[in-house]
Write a structure and sequence with these properties.
By secondary structure, this protein is an alpha+beta fold. Helices cover 31% and strands 23% of the residues. This is Immunity protein 52 domain-containing protein.
């Protein structure tokens, strides 16, 4: 089953060394939580390029890799520095990390998107993976979703791609967390940064996700960041 774990935020200019540190912490967290997907036997992490074959990428390579990526994009100081890594494990496991960070965009959010392919019946620690992204990247919001959830939110709740969203799990920054209404019917885990991790629904409970999304949106907890963007979080 394919699912995505995502984090989004606004402009936050950062040097390559800081970005490399965040990427390194992300790889460490994913490796710890998904040992079956991150298999050194199958070659470990590899960088996916816009053209040409994939190349090996170890955590120690990240600063140099990001410097090359930054130099290849003339507008990286505005759009952010992009990186795409993938790792294939045994038995149908695979994980991809795709991120754009460190820039000062005016309209498009910075992001880290983790795509996980897991064999049927496998247990994936979705909330823990979202907590890693929340801790490392300090985002505005984040979610754990799949195609069925996102399609239902667009069709039934008027969700627009790029706006704040939650899925089976959701992360809201501190300013959003204080707007979460009572009686939501979710399990809330308050995090050290003041944000909140919401346990919203089990796999397949799409109607519950839509209901909670609508309640959060109507309470103001999912209001989009104002454009032009001028800060990383609400």
């Amino acid at each position: 089953m394919r699912r995505v774990v995502r984090a989004f935020w606004g402009p936050r200019p950062e040097p390559v060394e800081t970005l490399a540190g965040r990427w390194r912490q992300t790889l460490e967290g994913v490796t710890e939580l998904l040992p079956s997907a991150v298999s050194p036997v199958r070659g470990g992490w590899r960088q996916v390029h816009s053209s040409g074959p994939d190349t090996a990428c170890t955590p120690e390579d990240l600063t140099a890799v990001l410097l090359v990526a930054q130099g290849a994009e003339a507008w990286s100081d505005l759009t952010g520095t992009g990186l795409r890594l993938t790792c294939t494990g045994d038995g149908g496991w695979a994980v991809e990390l795709s991120g754009v960070a460190g820039g000062t965009p005016q309209f498009l959010l910075q992001s880290l998107v983790m795509t996980i392919e897991a064999p049927d019946g496998a247990v994936v620690p979705e909330s823990e993976l979202l907590a890693v992204l929340a801790s490392v990247w300090e985002p505005d919001f984040g979610d754990v979703s799949d195609d069925g959830i996102l399609d239902a939110l667009e069709d039934d709740a008027g969700f627009t791609v790029g706006d704040p969203v939650v899925g089976r799990f959701g992360y809201l920054c501190a300013a959003r967390a204080v707007l979460v209404p009572t009686g939501l019917g979710t399990v809330r885990q308050d995090l050290p940064d003041g944000g909140a991790l919401l346990h919203i629904a089990a796999s397949g409970e799409i109607d519950t996700v839509v209901r909670v999304y609508e309640r959060l949106r109507d309470a103001g907890a999912l209001v989009p960041l104002p454009r032009p963007l001028n800060r990383p979080t609400l």
